Amino acid sequence: MKCKKCRKTIPDGSKYCNHCGTPTEKKKLYRRPDGLYEKVLTIDGKRVAFRAKKEKDVFLKIAAYEEKREKGLTFREVAELWKDEHRKTLSESTWAQCYDHAYNEVVDYFGDDHVSEITHKDIKRYMEHLPRSYARKTCSTRLNLINMVLKFAVVEDMIADNPCSYITVPKGHGSSKRRAPTSDEFITVKGSLPLEYKNFPVGFLAVFLLYTGCRKGEALALTFADIDRENMRITVNKSVYYQGNQGYIKKPKTEAGTREIIIPQTLLPLLPDGKKSDLIFCRYPGEIMKKDFFDKAWRYWREQTGLDLSAHQLRHGYATLLHEADVDVKDAQDLLGHADASTTQNIYTEVSKKRKQTVEKRINDYLQ
Fold first, then answer.
1. Are residues 146 and 276 in the same domain?
2. Dihedrals φ, ψ of 37, to 5°?
3. Which of 3, 51, 235, 330 is the most buried (most CB within 10 A)?
């Protein structure tokens, strides 16, 4: 059976053309008191109403609905369903730190594509478009997110196969690891001590992270009561996490996160004084620093120093200091608050490799 207007084939028994919306019968649609034409259909056991000012537009809406129904949900819609399920297993801080940015980036790219139409090549193309400056873990996180969303679609019978299977991070992408500061960068960090952003001592925060190995959230949660000047110790037993722009206090997610850190003698005189209940690093007394303020302060610090370093890279810098001071892996694990010794060992191994490369270069330069 062909449409009388567009001449395209339509299924026998159809009351309208699913290409142009032209009705195959001349029956008038019901017209509501408000002037809109209406057609009610029962689809999958549910009554669905289609309304428009013109009869033709009603049939076009029906055709569009059928086309969308045939293609299934978009990646954005499936991702939201997956997210509702997956986030129940994660803390707010873990989602914010590990998944949130990657999730938004992946959904922005695939958002309006129907999951039934996403192919193996589409995912490979996305992975190849990622900046080469991304760390391998950053690339893997994005690939893992796509895989989990599409795997969810398979389980829910939205698609038959997962096109993400057997895809890996392309060679040349994500080859860089999160690195520790170089020796020259160490000097620049120490020299940034006087830097302030809107009266917030962002330079001191950077030095503090470098000399203690605290995670950003741990440092922002420290109070003056956590500082034991007499015994030269800092007690870490809480951390700041963010929901949107607002910060909240939480306990460490592992027992290893609760620990004591040695205060280096060079850091002790730099520590300010305050009420025991007050936060050391805050913009206003008694108020946890807002996320956007920290981001702006850190951006200012990077601009002023010319250093492309994150707060976490300064923590890696502290691990490098421990290695160079011949602190063994077990003690370093305790100071860094790593739940798994392999995490500390991996950092130490990387530092050792770089040290050998430096020694090799010095020998070759000397012998030339």
1. no
2. -80, 145
3. 3
The confidence score (pLDDT) of residue 198 equals: 93
Higher pLDDT, 172 or 62: 62
Of 231, 216, 313, the C-alpha closest to 265 is: 231
Please calculate the CA angle 302-303-304 and round it to the nearest 5 degrees: 95
Torsion on CA atoms 290, 294, 297, 298, rounded to nearest 10: -170
**Residue-number span of the structural domain to which 20 is assigned:** 1-71
Q: What is the pLDDT of residues 102-119, one digit of tens each?
A: 899 999 999 889 898 899
Backbone angles phi, psi at 83, to 5 degrees: -60, -40
- Contacting residues for 87 by C-beta, under 8 A, at least 6 apart: 95
Find the radius of gyration of the CA atoms of the chain.
29
**Residue 65 and residue 90 share a domain:** no
- Which residue spans within the chain are E strands per DSSP? 30-31, 37-43, 46-52, 227-228, 233-236, 239-243, 246-250, 259-262
Residues 83 and 67 in one domain: no
One domain for residues 268 and 235: yes
Q: Would 303 be classed as within a structural domain?
A: yes
Clarify whether residues 189 and 332 are in a common domain: yes
Q: What are phi and psi of 7, to 5 degrees?
A: 70, 15
β-pair partners for 236: 259
| Phi then psi dihedrals of residue 230, to 5 deg | -65, -45
- The residues that bridge with 233 in the sheet, in sequence order, are 228, 262
Is pTM, for the whole model, over 0.85? no
How many structural domains are present in the chain?
3
Q: Cα torsion for 111, 116, 121, 127, to the nearest 10°?
A: 30
Tell me, yes or no, whether 63 and 80 share the same domain: no
Q: Are 51 and 32 in contact (CB under 8 A)?
A: yes
Residue that is last in its domain, among 71, 105, 128: 71
